[in-house]
Amino acid sequence: MKKFLKTLIPFDIAKGLTITGTHFAKVFLSANRRKVPFHVVSEYPEVPAKMQPRFRGRLQMLKDEAGEIKCVCCLACEKICPTQVITIESGKKEGRKTKLPTRYDFEMERCIFCEFCVESCGFDAIILNHQFELAVYNREDMSLSMEGTFQNMFGVSPVAKFSVADEEK
Ligand code: SF4
Ligand code: SF4
């Protein structure tokens, strides 16, 4: 009889719906209490994806407020890189006390995003930015330099159309 009743009344479905409903209400109410938008779905690619602060994307060189390259060619990043994807040549510039890179090549296809290079830099001259759309059609576009036309070591590349928010570019 009990078995027969079970087939008539969908207890298990009701139980499942109750659990789901309870969790939904919890999330919905807590989101409203904290006055945050009730968004659980990322609207990528229409809206650029917001990565977590510690996300490791593509290697990028930085400039200071005056537009000067921060790198002083200590070669720490080149030496520590386990896959040897960084090649630096140094030079001098009139009026600048420290050395300046005349060449900073980065072979992205072999980068393992370990961030050793960034950690070893004592001048905050490089970062791994938030760009995760790194696919390109030509292998050559994986080779970045200071002068690269398609993508270079400064700023994010055009392929980061949806992966980096405007304020981070
Ligand atoms: S993230 Fe790692 S592999 Fe990539 S360039 Fe830096 S040290 Fe080399
Ligand atoms: S560790 Fe920093 S300052 Fe030294 S060569 Fe690399 S980017 Fe330049």
How would you characterize the overall build of this protein?
- This protein has a three-stranded antiparallel sheet with strand order 2-3-5. The protein has a two-stranded antiparallel ribbon with strand order 1-4.
- It folds into two domains: 2-33; 59-168, Alpha-Beta Plaits, CATH 3.30.70.3270.
- The radius of gyration is 25 Å and the shape is elongated.
- The protein is an alpha+beta fold.
- It has four helices and five strands.
- It has helices at 2-8, 11-33, 76-80, 116-120, and strands at residues 59-61, 86-91, 100-107, 126-128, 143-144.
- One iron/sulfur cluster binds at residues 71-77, 88, 120-121, 123, 125-126.
How are the SSEs placed, and which strands pair?
Layout: H1 2-8, H2 11-33, E1 59-61, H3 76-80, E2 86-91, E3 100-107, H4 116-120, E4 126-128, E5 143-144
Antiparallel strand pairs: 1-4, 2-3, 3-5
The site of one iron/sulfur cluster has 13 residues, from helix 3.
Question: What is the percentage of strand-forming residues?
Answer: 5-15%
Instruction: Provide mean pLDDT, rounded.
Output: 85
Q: Tell me, what is the CATH class of the largest domain?
A: Alpha Beta
CATH hierarchy: architecture of the largest domain = 2-Layer Sandwich
- Gross morphology is elongated
Q: Strands of the biggest beta sheet: in what spatial order?
A: 2-3-5
Largest β-sheet summary: 3 strands, antiparallel
CA radius of gyration is 25 Å
Rounded to the nearest angstrom, the distance between the terminal CA atoms is 68 Å
Helix content: 10-25%
How many distinct domains? 2
Number of helices: 4
Number of strands: 5
CATH topology title of the largest domain:
Alpha-Beta Plaits
Q: From N to C, what is the helix and strand string?
A: HHEHEEHEE
Q: What ions, cofactors and ligands are bound?
A: iron/sulfur cluster
Low-pLDDT segments, ≥5 res: none
Structural classification: alpha+beta
